Amino acid sequence: MAMPAATASAKSLLKRLLSHSSYPTATKISNYRFSISATNKATYATLRSKNKSTSENQREKQKQKAEVLVKRRTRSEREIDEEGFSREYGNDNSAHVPVLLGEVLDVFASVPLKSFVDCTLGAGGHSAAIIQAHPEMEFYVGLDVDPIAHQIAQARINDVLGKDSGLSKKDLRVHTHLKNFRSVKTVLQDIDVNPLNPGVQGILMDLGMSSMQVNNAERGFSVLCDGPLDMRMNPQDSLRAEDILNLWPDDEVGRILRDYGEESNWFSLQKRIVRARLTGGLHSTNELVGLIRNSTSWTKKGGRQGWIKTATRVFQALRIAVNDELNTLKNSIYSCFDCLASGGRLAVITFHSLEDRIVKQAFLDIVNKEGHLSNSPKFETYKEKEAWIKQMVQGPNACVLTKRPITPSESEERLNPRSRSAKLRVIEKV
Ligand SMILES: C[S@@+](CC[C@H](N)C(=O)[O-])C[C@H]1O[C@@H](n2cnc3c(N)ncnc32)[C@H](O)[C@@H]1O
């Protein structure tokens, strides 16, 4: 077949260039490629990894740029009371600071909260503030799978009720349970059928870990403290992170790192983790971090920033798998929505993109695809009354009050860096 003119001339130009330059000819090039020395192999490997890390760096930069843009559109306009904040938390780095607290209070401010469910008690920070802000509350339920959180939150709520809230224990029926929020429906049914009919007015899910969990080395959640590879939110569960690392099939380990950690280096890490089994396996967070440090040092992304980011992604992946967090979240959003009364609101705070995607999708699914960006008179009334509502998606059964999520103000991020990745989404039952 005749060669197109442009290709032919390009070929002859290349030939001429090769014959006049110090480059080997085409045949020589192929021989050269096959007789590549060990030193050159290493050089090529370095070049390849440099190219890979350059493109990864570019991708990282693009991601950061996109994040800055999104943040600009979603940042909360609510400034934090800095004096109050330092009075409450001072220099105490161990205390758990409730994230987006003012914003959560705004979400429920216009709802007469006769009944409220906090699915993630933690240190009870959100619950205590919501109970204080709603003296009309008659029925409160708090859940957590962690016995330490359960105990701390219970004490905090009792403290609030004993103080100046205008509420007393007999006005308000308080039920705190050591339970997974996936059983929210049965918990409510077991306590009393009435709250489910017509339903509860407010539900909050503040996902992820509390500072008490991260700061306790024995729980194995922290990249920076040495402890057992545990990562169970519920100490009664049987699966630990070390079971996954030492016993699960190779490709399952890789899948977790790829899908739950969004770690680009997942395959190399999978191979190293599986290889470590030959010498007794991994049993402490330090051993896992050491393995990650060794596997990131050959790339340009080595250095403290590189390995800490990778280790954070690997720890996130293991934590999600140990606690089956994504499936639990997905199913529980539907259960929580079912428990709402008409006009009731479900608010969810997430801390990474996998969680946020699930919440966004589930909300849109509930709105039933017939939803549309609303400029209806209802939306105008909402906007007038509640300045935090910017755009809604309205459907026959529900209304997503946050088309875009709400993210912390700059002052909150500065005062509580843990809040940096938080996103708040809210849905209201019609
Ligand atoms: C970020 S903390 C909540 C902090 C709380 N909002 C506060 O103001 O102190 C998240 C809590 O949710 C709990 N948790 C996580 N997954 C859970 C689940 N599926 N069911 C119940 N509790 C869960 C954790 O044990 C942890 O105590």
From TrEMBL:
Molecular functions (GO terms): methyltransferase activity
Q: Which positions are tagged coiled coil?
A: none
**Keywords from the named record:** Methyltransferase, S-adenosyl-L-methionine, Transferase
Q: Where is this region: Disordered?
A: 48-88
TM stretches of this protein: none
Q: Which GO terms describe its biological process?
A: methylation
Q: Where is the composition biased (Basic and acidic residues)?
A: 57-70
Q: Does the keyword NADP apply?
A: no
Q: Indicate whether Zinc-finger appears among the record's keywords.
A: no
A Pfam family recorded for this sequence: Methyltransf_5
InterPro entries attached to this UniProt entry: RsmH, SAM-dep_MeTrfase_MraW_recog, SAM-dependent_MTases_sf
The record's HAMAP family line, in alphabetical order, gives:
16SrRNA_methyltr_H (MF_01007)
Q: Which family is this protein grouped under?
A: Belongs to the methyltransferase superfamily. RsmH family.
Name of this protein: MraW methylase family protein
